[in-house]
Amino acid sequence: MSAAHTKSAITAALVRIARVEAKNIEVTTQPDGTVRLTGTVNSLLALRRAEHAAWAAPGVYRVDDQLVVLT
Q1: What is the pLDDT of residues 27-37, one digit of tens each?
Q2: Could you tell me where the beta strands, DSSP code E, fall in 1-71?
């Protein structure tokens, strides 16, 4: 699976999760299956859901979570 397809799958999953503000999350993928999440979320639960969405995408072998929870 290509990095672009993986990125698209993760972004689509984030959009489906209503409580995650996908517009505030940037997804970057690498050909080796690494995904980096950057940006902000409103809660720890939203952060965990974003991580889960990334891990659930096909071809992901590593998630580098750099999301920041806003307080």
Answers
A1: 999 999 999 99
A2: 25-29, 34-41, 62-69
Number of domains, the chain: 1
**CA 2 to CA 30: how far, in whole Å?**
9
Q: What are phi and psi of 46, to 5 degrees?
A: -65, -40
CATH number, residue 30: 3.30.1340.30
DSSP 22: G
Residue percentage of the chain with pLDDT more than 70? 90
Query: What is this structure's pTM?
Result: 0.75
Whole domain around residue 60: which residue ranges? 3-69
What tokens were used for 20?
């995650």
